[in-house]
Amino acid sequence: MDRNTLTGLVLIGAILIGYSFWMQPSQEEIEAQKLVQDSIAAVQADDELVAKMVEADLKPVDTAQSQNIGLDSVAKTLQDSLDKIKNRQRFGSFATAASGEEKYHTIENDFVKFTLSNKGGAPVSGELIEYVTYDSMPLFLFEEGTSRFNVDFWLDQNTELSSSDLYFQEVPDEMSSTSAVYRIYGDNKDQYLEMSYIIEEGESYIINAEVSVVGMDNVLRSSDDLFELNWKIDAPFHEKSRDQEQMKTTMYYKYMTDDADYVSETSYESEELEASIQWVAFKQQFFSAALISEEGFSKEGATVETIEMEDENYTKGLSTSLGLEFGNGRNPSVPFKFYVGPNHYQTLSDLGIGLEDQIDLGWTIFGWVNRWLVIPTFNFLDKNSGMSYGIIILILTILIKLLLFPLTWKNYVSSARMRVLKPEIDELNKKFEGKDAMAKQQAVMGLYRQAGVNPMAGCIPMVLQLPILYAMFRFFPASIELRQESFLWAEDLSSYDSIMQLPFEIPFYGDHVSLFTILMAISTFFYSKYNMDMTGGGNAQMPQMKMMIYFMPFMLLFFFNSYSSGLSYYYLSANVITMLQQFIIKRFFIDEDKIHAKIQANKKKPNKKSGFQQRIEKMAKNRGIQTPKK
Question: What is the pTM of this model?
Fold first, then answer.
């Protein structure tokens, strides 16, 4: 081949290549051609569909409609594919658990119905079988739609997942009326996250739970051995008085090495927990749902919170976050327990973890009186008498008054001594009328010293009775035994009694009238007046005491009107029994003439000055007042 021929062939090749590039269609022309081809394909599909319908002796559908059907099918297939891709990106190995159908399973015993959902493998409601609400509806401590329980964890690619977004599979062999086991699987059946629940049979409020991780070393984040358990409950309104129930609803918690503590009942707060936690309780007035760990929940990210609720069907929102620490091991698990039950002191105490400390029995000595005296006595009467709680309260009052009788006796004897000295005290008042009050006080103390009377002797027995009075003030509103127990006109001794519903609300009083409170206030007035008359205090030198006789019962009307009717009934009974005791003592055991004669004899004896009398005399001398000689 000569040089010219070779050159011609090269030029021809270059021309062909250049022509092919020149004649290549643009992107717009390609898309237009594709649209034409798609249209032809759609028409062919419509023709095939019509042909099939003719063969089947069917009426042909509109061509446009058939085209839409085909497009919808394609769109759905594409959307399903996109969803799978998104789920794989979002949920990793658990992508297949991102969709499903929610199913419920209930485990129960004699006391509790505990309903679970496969969505999240979590509890959705807890019902107490033996209790009902004030309006006789089933009593739920938490219920579906207002409770959210989930466990958060991290995948290896640092993607956070929540169990509440995943549909767990039931383990058929483990599902029964007392147990449930849920799993979500990874890429194979040897990799799964498991949540199991077993309710203790018989008369129990305990549900044993466990979160287990099996074969997930390559799925979960390698640096993470801590899951986060979150539980939020909108506490339902159960009782007669929403205000009282709301005031007693809050979060309690107990560290492994410390006493129980709580979030303020009068405000809405969030607290970070600072040590390993033994239990956290969603405490309502008479019931609690609690999470318990024998080994302790981790403090990492642990919080408790109370939240204000606008819906009046609920008292407060209660929430906690707790750490589940798995530690080392290929198949680690974290066990814990639920308590779903009443705030019954003995029931909680029997658990041996201090859960009874959430019952407000008063602090220090007042709590001791309730724990070691009032509650054992009350429980003994409750178990062995078979009587109504109104009668049990009356018997309890009588027993306490008999226990305090030595103090009552001492108080009355002191009052009798003061009473027989009243004529001489009146003479001193006239003698020092218009003069220095300190001089008069010194003279009165001199008279007491000569007569061998200690003016403070009557106060000491009263002070010693205060722990019991305050202990009862705490005991009755917190006693679930009185809940929905009726007596006379009171339909619920744990709440207020009402004989009249007012068409309006009186500030600090309420919109009802409590008869037990009225009777208690009246008895307090007569009891105070009777005591003043006994001590000889009904004279002009004690105007403040006279004012208190009228003022205190009036204040009690406002303070106790919306309080426990059982408490008002107790104070009423205590006042009546005390006045009866004093009447019997005065009528049959105390001779005031003999007391007067003994006092006159004491005047003739030299008496050592008490420390109180010495201080009075010293104050008088410092002011330049001459103290009387014996």
Answer: 0.76
